[in-house]
Structure formats: C-alpha cells, structure tokens
Write a structure and sequence with these properties.
Elements (H helix, E strand, L loop, with lengths): L8 E2 L14 E2 L3 H9 L4 H11 L3 H10 L6 H11 L5 H10 L2 E9 L5 E17 L2 E8 L2 E5 L16 E5 L2 E4 L5 H8 L18 H15 L3 E3 L2 H9 L58 E8 L18 E8 L15 E5 L7 E2 L2 E3 L3
Helix pairs in contact: 1-2, 2-4, 3-5
Length: 367
C-alpha cells in the first residue's frame, strides 16, 4: 500500500537543524521531542529544548539534570540556571550528583579587622583530573554587573584605578585556588618556584609562561582554559562587595597572607610571614574563591593601560592599544602592604617578569 501524500509525517525539524518545518511534516512534541532536540548537534537547539522540558514535570526535570553532563558548557550553565532554585529533595540529590557543591563560611570584618558577620554559603564547581592524585577545581561565577575601579574616597587609591565604570560580566568558571606547584608539575613537567611545596602556589612564572600553561592545560583536558581578564578578576574578587576588600573595610593576617606589618584602615599590625602559604589556608570570598587577596600576585590577560578611559564594558580582555610588553597583575602578595591587596589595586608587569611573589589562576571559556 502506498503512503498517503496528504498524511503528515512525524519529523523533528529542529533536530535536523532546519529553521523551518519541512512541507508535510509535524514537529515531534512532548518528552520524546525534547529528547530528540537534546541530541541535536546545535547548542542553541539543545538550550531551547531545556526550557521546553520544564513543561513536562519530573520527566522533563530529569532531562534537564542529564544535560549537566553535556559536552557544551553553555548547555550545562543553562541546565544549572533552571535547576539551582529547585527545592525538591529528589532534584537536589540528583543535582548534587552531576553538579557538585561545596560549603564555606563567607566572612566580613569592620575597619579594625574584627569579624562583624559571617554566613554559610555554597558554590558549584567542576573537577578536572590532571593525573592522580592531582585535580583542578573550577568554581562557577554567575554573571552580573558591577562598578570597576575605586571611588576617590577610598584610602590608598591611585590614578590608574580610575575612571570608575560599569562592566557587565558573563558567567564563567574561575579556579577555586591559585594554580599550585603540583598542578603546574602535572601539566608542564617542571617546577620553577622559589618556595617549594605541592600545595603552595606556583610562582616565578612569567605572563608568557602562564599563557603557555593555559595552552597545554587546554590540550590535556580538551577545554579552552585561559587567564582571567582584568574585569573578570575584579568582579570575581569582589564577590558582590563594594568595599576595599571582599572581607570588608580591611584585612588581617588571620584572613590574608600579606605583610601584616603594614596594615590598612584601623587594623592593628600583625604577622608578616615572608613566604607563600598553601592554597585554601584562609577563608574564601562569597563566590567560594580563595586567596583573591595576597599570597601571590595574579597575572591577568589584559595589556596594561594607565587608566580605564576607553576600557571595554563587557568584561573582555582589553587588547586594544595599551602596552604590548606589559600585562596586568592583581591581588597583592605575601610581600605586599595591605593597601596593595585591595580589590581595585592594579600594577603592571613585563611579560617576561618572574618573581617569587607572582603566580596566577585560570578561567574556563564556554564552548
């Protein structure tokens, strides 16, 4: 019996990557339709299917959860955004399986360095295997808008922290910790650091060396790793704060590895360790990132500019004009005065500069 030409055929037009439904076809609907579109090679089609899945109750939520394993970080983030506020116990249990979280205490202090508040918080992260037992943990940083730079009233402010300007940063992943010597060894096969220790941050690495590490790490894992842009770094460091430090009005040696003999605001003098400390030794910020103040300076991707005049507003690396041979460093170090560890403070460094107080962390681009 011949096929009736007037009978519509079941056909998943979106799965086929076509923008219009073919003549004589109907789009496969329901959960089967969502499943088929989640198998599409087109990222945008898979993301649209996730939002459609919300209409189908628990079976749809199961499909969203399964998308947390998708090869595209854009798809993973879309699934994450749809699930993060769900309170159902079974959803939370499944969510945790594919998108692990860690808990931490977010601490703030007053101008004298006395803790004035603290809250239990959590963050989602990815774990990459660099070869047993070395792993790399990347923390999800939600996108948002912030004011970059410092106000004229901030103590210790320098001209190159102006002009304050609004920047909108897209969501990304940032290293939970500074790159450690164990991680560097696993990727590069050597250890250039002055202070030796597997959990200590790698240092005596130039900007060129840090970029080379990102390239080799990308090849090893199969994802595009890079340095943070300067705007991403400050946004991630602040963690939603507008104070000089993400801890508040000042810092103390109990919270940060810096030269405690040179305090900030009304904080008392304290310990100056004179060396690096293991990553994760001090409390994180509200995003779950450690050592954003002190320990070692962090290379950013941007060329050096003496102010923010003409800076991009989208969080991207500022590569236009600038000084080709100088790149931005952020965060301060074990040798820095407290004022230099502020969220807005910035310095330049030659791309070949290698010191025992310079390291970096990595970011993960979305594919």
């Amino acid at each position: 019996m011949t096929e009736n030409p007037n009978q519509p055929r079941e056909y998943d037009a979106v799965l086929a990557g076509q923008s219009q439904v073919p003549f004589g076809a109907t789009v496969l609907g329901g959960v089967p339709g969502v499943k088929s579109r989640l198998a599409s090679p087109i990222v945008e089609v898979r993301i649209t299917a996730l939002y459609e899945a919300l209409k189908y109750g628990e079976p749809g939520l199961d499909l969203i959860i399964s998308a947390l394993q998708d090869e595209s970080i854009k798809v993973k983030l879309a699934a994450y955004s749809l699930l993060k506020e769900r309170d159902e116990p079974n959803i939370k249990e499944k969510f945790q399986k594919y998108s692990p979280i860690f808990d931490f205490d977010a601490i703030t202090v007053d101008a004298k360095g006395k803790e004035n508040s603290g809250r239990r918080d959590y963050a989602h992260f990815l774990r990459e295997d660099l070869g047993n037992p070395v792993v790399l943990e990347m923390v999800y940083i939600p996108g948002g808008t912030f004011i970059m730079g410092s106000p004229a009233t901030e103590k210790g402010r320098t001209y190159d922290e102006s002009l304050q300007h609004q920047v909108t940063v897209a969501a990304f992943y940032a290293g939970k910790y500074l790159i450690t010597q164990a991680q560097w060894q696993a990727v590069m096969g050597n250890n250039p650091s002055w202070f030796q220790g597997e959990k200590l941050p790698v240092e005596k690495v130039s900007w060129n060396m840090a970029v080379e590490f990102c390239g080799k790490l990308s090849q090893k894992i199969g994802k595009k790793y890079r340095l943070l842009s300067e705007a991403e770094w400050e946004y991630a460091c602040r963690g939603g704060t507008t104070t000089p430090f993400h801890f508040g009005e000042t810092i103390t040696p109990e919270l940060v590895n810096y030269n405690g003999h040179k305090p900030y605001a009304n904080a008392p003098k304290g310990l100056g360790r004179g060396k690096t400390t293991d990553v994760g030794s001090f409390p994180p910020n509200a995003f779950g990132l450690y050592d954003m103040h002190g320990n070692v300076w962090e290379w950013c991707s941007d060329k050096w500019h003496g102010s923010y005049e003409g800076a991009p507003s989208d969080g991207s690396s500022w590569e236009e004009t600038g000084r080709d041979n100088f790149r931005v460093q952020r965060g301060g170090s074990w040798a820095s005065h407290a004022v230099s560890c502020r969220s807005a403070y910035r310095v330049r460094g030659s791309v070949g500069n290698r010191e025992s107080y310079i390291g970096f962390r990595v970011a993960l681009s979305f594919a």
